[in-house]
Amino acid sequence: MQKRNVGFELSVYDSLDELSEEDQLLMNAAVEARKNAYAPYSNFKVGAAVLMSTGEIVIGSNQENASYPSGLCAERVAVFQAGALYPGIPITAIAISASSQNYKVNRPAAPCGNCRQSIAEYEQKQEGTIRLLMMGEIGQVYNCNAIAELLPLGFDNSYL
Ligand code: THU
């Protein structure tokens, strides 16, 4: 028997100001996108901004539904839109920003399991990593260098 470490290194920034200008711009696009969230059931609004290798930014926000599972997270709205608009163009990074009407979200929100799986598919398709920036409404920002790191031992098409 051997033990294998499948953990990863997270970069933690104390505030948005510590990020590069390009990353601040991407996170600000996610904050803007958040305003178009349709979240009457959870009151939890999420914005996502996808940076393409060409420099284009594609945004998304969570869109809820009275039939709860029919809604979709911000990350998947944005990533699917990026795939639909720019097929074949690699995704460089995704910024995520979360807020709530019930309290001040003061820590980063990481993508849910379904979103990790969906983004991982794009990472594999483009054969290149997708960097993730995560933030609440205020406070620290997390940087993760690849979505696969957030989904250790993930299932992918190499099994099919
Ligand atoms: N949500 C996202 O959009 N992204 C996440 O990473 C976590 C959760 C949405 C789904 C739902 O509309 C609301 O937040 C509460 O779960």
Provide tags for this entry.
binds tetrahydrodeoxyuridine, 25% helix, six-stranded mixed beta sheet, alpha+beta
| CATH class value | Alpha Beta
User: Using only CA atoms, what is the Rg?
Assistant: 15 Å
Count of extended strands: 6
Q: End-to-end span in angstroms?
A: 28 Å
Helices and strands, in N-to-C order? EHEEHEHEE
- Please work out how many helical segments DSSP would assign: 3
Derived from helix and strand composition plus strand pairing, the structural class reads alpha+beta
Poorly predicted segments:
none
Task: Characterize the largest beta sheet: strand count, sense, and whether it forms a barrel.
Answer: 6 strands, mixed
Number of domains: 1
Principal-axes shape call:
globular
What is the percent of helical residues?
25-40%
Topology, element by element:
Layout: E1 11-13, H1 21-34, E2 44-52, E3 57-61, H2 74-85, E4 91-100, H3 113-126, E5 131-135, E6 141-144
Parallel strand pairs: 4-5
Antiparallel strand pairs: 1-6, 2-3, 2-4, 5-6
Helix pairs in contact: 2-3
Tetrahydrodeoxyuridine (THU) binds near residues 71, 73 and 75.
Question: Care to give the gist of this entry?
Answer:
This protein is of the alpha+beta class and 160 residues long. The chain has a single domain (11-150), classed as 3-Layer(aba) Sandwich (Cytidine Deaminase, domain 2), CATH 3.40.140. It has helices spanning 21-34, 74-85, 113-126; strands at residues 11-13, 44-52, 57-61, 91-100, 131-135, 141-144.
